[in-house]
Design goal:
This protein has 274 residues and is mainly α. Helices cover 74% and strands 0% of the residues. The protein has one domain.
Length: 274
């Protein structure tokens, strides 16, 4: 059965309700845990002093914008957005693997087990689990989004390599950022943004939501970097400006190509009726 056929088949209403409840509860949990970080409020868990402001902004992006935003997008007609669900599942696997093996504190199987349970719950609850095994497309891939993602990946690669080293070495050196897992959080956030960009460029079902979420995440991080240029790990003024440009580019390209796709679909429908 093709991916398009899987999406067109009727979905039992109770499955949609179950998934909406599961995704809704997870969304509330993520927003509760991440909005304070996103707003750079004092006294947030894992940020013992104001020297962690940039990492606090990254944590809010990681929790509330990327994960929370993706699950929020899935609350409405989730069966039509398998790409977003695939992104969430792949991101949980990525985060679990990185935190379990690359945190500098040794192998942690508990993290892998928690990730596996979350993935199992989301896959089992998804209205069309079989659709998650396919990467069908609404149209031809978006080469502008792919090029933008490749450029972002090249700029983020040195940051990923540097901060991964700081995380591993920092655990033995008792670096406060490493002890609070700030460097590894930065690494997985960068990898998730690259993954989101690649997946949205494939134009799978739900790519528009993923493209917009990616753009909003870059916009926020760019603004935060300009606001916090001297803080540990910050992208600085240049990086913040590039983050803003990346965010605006993702949002603009997504909107333009989504409208073009909509016009093509409407034109095909009119031609068929004619």
């Amino acid at each position: 059965m093709s991916p398009s056929t899987l999406l067109q088949t009727e979905v039992k209403k109770w499955r949609v309700i179950v998934f909406t409840i599961v995704a809704g509860l997870l969304t509330l949990l993520l927003l509760y845990g991440g909005l304070g970080d996103l707003l750079l409020l004092n006294g947030q868990s894992g940020f013992p002093s104001s020297i962690h402001r940039w990492h606090e902004a990254q944590s809010g992006t990681f929790t509330a914008l990327v994960f929370g935003g993706s699950l929020l997008a899935l609350l409405w007609r989730p069966q039509l957005k398998p790409l977003v669900a695939q992104f969430v599942v792949l991101s949980i696997a990525l985060v679990s693997l990185c935190f379990a093996t690359l945190s500098g504190s040794g192998f942690n199987p508990i993290v892998l087990a928690i990730g596996a349970v979350l993935i199992a719950i989301l896959v089992a609850a998804y209205p069309k689990p079989r659709a998650l095994l396919h990467f069908g497309r609404e149209g031809s891939p978006s080469y502008p989004l792919l090029l933008l993602t490749l450029i972002a990946a090249m700029l983020l690669a040195p940051i990923i390599a540097r901060e991964l080293t700081w995380q591993i070495l920092g655990m033995t050196a008792h670096d406060v950022h490493a002890l609070n897992y700030h460097w590894i959080t930065s690494v997985v956030l960068a990898l998730m943004l690259i993954l989101a960009g690649v997946l949205s460029s494939t134009k799978g079902y739900g790519w528009q939501a993923l493209g917009l979420i990616t753009g909003v995440a870059y916009l926020y991080l760019g603004f935060a970097a300009l606001l916090l240029p001297e803080y540990a790990g910050s992208w600085g003024t240049v990086g913040g400006t590039l983050g803003l440009l990346a965010g605006l580019s993702y949002i603009t390209i997504t909107i333009v190509e989504a409208r073009r796709r909509s016009r093509i679909v409407r034109g095909s429908a009119v031609g068929t009726l004619g």
